[in-house]
Amino acid sequence: MNPAGKVAIVTGGGGGIGGALAARLAEAGARVVVADLDAAAAGTVAAHIEADHPGSVLAVGADVADRGAIAGLIDTAEAAFGPVDMYFANAGVTGGVGLDAGEDAWDRALDVNLRAHVRAAQLLVPDWVERGSGYFVSTASAAGLLTQIGSATYSVSKHAAVGFAEWLSVTYGDKGIRVSCLCPMGVDTPLLREGFAAGDPVGEAATTAVTAAGRVLAPDDVAQCVLAAIDAEQFLILPHPEVLEMYRHKGADYDRWLRGMRRYQATLLGDSDAQGPVA
């Protein structure tokens, strides 16, 4: 799909990948609603875009864990620009670490990282099917294909996001609906810089697992990958190509991969007897 002339909503658009995506979409000729829990951050991103592409952007403060907020975003986009063509479910949270993560941490991770995608699709897809066209882009994570050391909430919710994107593609791909799923490793965003749990050994190991696994990319590098994938209507978007090889190793010998991940985790936690990860 060519974004030129399309109406797009980008959640988590107040910075990081979302802010870069909004800018790239506007540059490609789309009209963009930038949504973020931090309304001021969304406004700052929108102001920068507006300076270069007048009339192409609108900022909205919204908590996409709430179905009503998503519905409001869609209504706002339609009133300002017309029917929504593209939805970027990009907002995300890390959640908690270990089995000590409480109900609130699980609820927040599942609401933002998964249910926000489901709720947006429920609101948009029926109309897209009627129109015969629409594009849903889910920001998951390499953790959704592999795992996230330390954080069950993040790993599980991101696996679920990948699963939902797959299901959308299988169910609606022959009805004009295109779906892509973004699964990067480390990206230089506030989410990464804030980490999983500063001062907690397991939380710090979780952050190190991300930053040590490969290059930490700039958000704009990731946004460029996303737009290229949309142009090609490609499902799996891997800004870190090495994730595919890791995923293949996991599938080829699951038990060996699990043993390797346990050893890698022990290394991160300072176990001097641990060996490195198995490829």
From TrEMBL:
UniProt-listed Gene3D superfamilies: NAD(P)-binding Rossmann-like Domain
Family under the similarity heading: Belongs to the short-chain dehydrogenases/reductases (SDR) family.
Record-linked Pfam families: adh_short
Protein name, per record: SDR family oxidoreductase
CDD domains in alphabetical order: SDR_c (cd05233)
Alphabetically ordered keywords of this record: Oxidoreductase
Phylogenetic placement of the source organism: Bacteria, Bacillati, Actinomycetota, Actinomycetes, Mycobacteriales
Keyword Chaperone: no
GO molecular function, one term: oxidoreductase activity
Domain of life: Bacteria
Protein source organism: Speluncibacter jeojiensis
